[in-house]
Amino acid sequence: MKRKPKLGQNFLVDEAARVRIADALGDVCATTVIEIGPGHGAITSVLAPQCGRLIAVELDRSLAAELRFRFREQANVEIVESDVLQVEFDSLLRGGERASVVGNLPYYITSDILLKLFASSRQGVFARAVLMMQREVAERVAAVPGVRDYGLLSATAQMHARVEELFTLPPSAFSPPPEVYSTVIRLDFAPRFEQLGVEPEPFDRFLHQSFAQKRKTLLNNLRAAGFAPETLHALWPQAIPQQVRAEALSLEAMAELYRAIGAAAGIK
After folding, report:
1. Average pLDDT, the chain
2. What is the pLDDT of residues 75-117, one digit of tens each?
3. Distances 254 to 193, 195, 239, 243 between C-alpha atoms, Å
């Protein structure tokens, strides 16, 4: 089948890798698994005999038809032809169940997919995800405060899940080979909003404001976002230096700052 570059299609052909990815989900015999971008079914074929129910979301009409034919005799496999960014995940699931997610994410919408998964995780939809993405994006997701790669994506991911880098694959593991290396990560969803005493949507906005300009200090980013200078100076926690940049602070420190100035600044 002809590849469609605009869909970011680089199909996994490494036999060992597809098994390792499926195995990283753990025991899924009684679990519903949602697969994002199954392509020709490299991972789908490993998971289909293992999991309780497998829902594969594929945008490419030709690939979706191929998958329906290939798995036509497996009652636990459902092929959904749709853009994953338009799918309401909870509508695919039976009342109250939690799902795991697996997928080789298209490079050009990786961040959008991650943000969608994080939003769903706040509703208790997902327990675990094993995802493959461009190595540099995976490094940003897993980065810790104080290092160059730490930023908004890192903070957002780690506010929603425990992040673990599993392994990296060379371009030769795909057909056609991409120009980058790919890394597989595992996310165990465990949103920390309640633990840190913050509300999800307002704190998300606060993080966006805090990381708006990477070269600016946190104080200047918040001023630019509309926080009154007198409020910032009056309520700023003593333990947090006023010249610090957002990427140097832990989530605990960011939550402390948010709790100190959020109510006074009217964040809702």
Report:
1. 93
2. 999 999 999 999 999 999 988 889 999 999 988 899 999 999 9
3. 12, 13, 11, 14
CB 210 within 8 A of CB 50: no
Q: Give the contacts of 93 (CB within 8 A, at least 6 positions apart).
A: 32, 99, 125
- What tokens does 80 get? 């959904």
Predicted confidence at residue 186, as pLDDT, reads 98
User: Chain centroid to CA 105: how far?
Assistant: 10
Residue 240 phi, psi (nearest 5): -110, 115
Q: Please name the residues in contact with 72: beta carbons below 8 A apart, sequence gap of 6 or more.
A: none
Q: Is the pLDDT of residue 213 over 70?
A: yes
Distance CA 221, CA 209 (A): 6
pLDDT score, position 71:
97
Which parts of 61-186 fold into alpha helices (H)?
61-70, 89-92, 110-121, 135-142, 152-160
DSSP 177-209: --SS-EEEEEEEE---HHHHT--HHHHHHHHHH
Domains in the chain, please, with CATH?
A: 5-191 (3.40.50.150), 195-261 (1.10.8.100)
The torsion angle over the Cα atoms of residues 248, 253, 254 and 255, rounded to 10 degrees, is 160
